[in-house]
Amino acid sequence: MRLFRSEEHASRSRRSDLSQVITLDQAARLARAWYVKKLTPGWRRHTVEEAEALFTQLGFDKDFWRLQ
Amino acid sequence: MTDDAVFDGLVRQAIAASIRRRGVVPTIAQIASDMGAAPAAVDASFARMIAAHVFIPKRESREIYSYNPFCAEPTDFRVRSDGREWWALCGWDALGIPAALGAAGTVETSCADCGDRIVIDVDRDGTAVSNGGAVLNIGVRALDFWTDIYFT
């Protein structure tokens, strides 16, 4: 999951058609939601349902981001 | 909850405490020492967590390569946060380090296309601003994230 200067740069270096580009704002919100509790005592992995709900909330493509 | 599950929870807490205290991803020996536990018991716990995708092991090892978002070794994604320098496996993880630490931070990497230096400042609340534009490419479908996690 690499960072690029722009979507154009990402398109030039895309290794596969099965990839997607998300904005920095989306990436930052995803990262925060995913990891904000990681070092807390009660942390546990997200369930599939929780993860898919987060992806939907962030406006991600359902087919690409589905987990089951 | 089984005894193993309880122990694994304590091991996860010890890993997290070690990352906060030492600023590095711990080894099995360090966790065993911190917990006053037998290294074999911690090793077995690590094996269970690897199977459950709790962390990414080093190749041919049960030692932690990445307790995501924290990578044990230097990578192309350097993060300065909470007064320390950290490493992440990918852009997603790099942006997650400040969030995990509850601090602001700065991500430094380069564009995977042109090599241009990318610097991203992340506020304590998670707002990210780059020095000239940045997007994140997700190279595999979510369903395949763990198919080859070293590639992902």
Textual characterization of the structure:
- The complex is a heterodimer of chains A (68) and B (152).
- Chain A is mainly alpha-helical and 68 residues long.
- Chain A has a domain at 22-65.
- Helix content of chain A is 49%, strand content 10%.
- Chain A contains 4 helices and 2 strands; from the N terminus they run βαβααα.
- Chain A is globular.
- By secondary structure, chain B is of the alpha+beta class.
- Chain B folds into 2 domains: 3-67, Arc Repressor Mutant, subunit A, CATH 1.10.10; 74-130, Bactericidal permeability-increasing protein, domain 1 (Super Roll).
- Helices cover 34% and strands 24% of the residues of chain B.
- In chain B, the strands form 2 sheets. Chain B has a 5-stranded antiparallel beta sheet, covered by helices on one side. A 3-stranded antiparallel beta sheet of chain B has the order 1-2-3.
- In chain B, strand 1 and strand 2 (64-67) form a beta hairpin.
- The mean pLDDT of chain B is 94.
- Chains A and B meet through strand 1, helix 1, strand 2, helix 2 and helix 4 of A and helix 1, helix 4, strand 7 and strand 9 of B.
- Strand 2 (20-23) of chain A pairs antiparallel with strand 9 of chain B.
Q: What percent of residues of chain A are in strands? A: 5-15%
How is the main sheet of chain A built? Answer: none
Series of secondary-structure elements of chain B, N-terminal to C-terminal: HHHEEEEEHEEEE
Helix-and-strand structural type of chain B: alpha+beta
Radius of gyration of chain B, whole Å: 16 Å
| Main sheet specs of chain B | 5 strands, antiparallel
Write down the CATH class of the largest domain in chain B.
Mainly Alpha
